[in-house]
Amino acid sequence: xxxxxxxxxxxxxxxxxxxxxxxxxxxxxxxxxxxxxxxxxxxxxxxxxxxxxxxxxxxxxxxxxxxxxxxxxxxxxxxxxxxxxxxxxxxxxxxxxxxxxxxxxxxxxxxxxxxxxxxxxxxxxxxxxxxxxxxxxxxxxxxxxxxxxxxxxxxxxxxxxxxxxxxxxxxxxxxxxxxxxxxxxxxxx
Length: 189
What we know:
Largest sheet: 4 strands, mixed
Number of strands: 9
Number of domains: 2
Order of helices and strands: HEHHEEEEHEEEEHHHH
Strand content: 15-25%
Helix content: 25-40%
Mean pLDDT: 93
């Protein structure tokens, strides 16, 4: 049996692989990767990053964002979010954005992985999962990037801060707010 067939046996649908992950099963990993991409067995997402597509009734499915980011970073410590999450706060944001933000400890910048762009922001501290308090602080941190009327949103944010748990809100402002956000939100508590 050839090394290429051995490599194919190791691949699992829905998984994202780094070139270095596959090198352990092949002595000619670059040639084998080229062959697998040509066959359509793997899709090249970016330099050194490959996806074994899962098929559904609708055709090939893209990789899950979590799996893709985890493999790209080689780390589990990240928070994947989008400005669309602000819409759940009820403060007047209604726009839909095609933007994925990744808070992490390693990378900073815009990266195209497959057909999607991810905006990586290196942060010292971020929660393990999205909370309403974090989202509100993050909204104020990034309000200048939003398409909505900032003054109207800030009026509703002030009301929302008053309605939220003050201890949780205070911790979120201290931990995640930039200087401007802290100046705006702390007096509202």
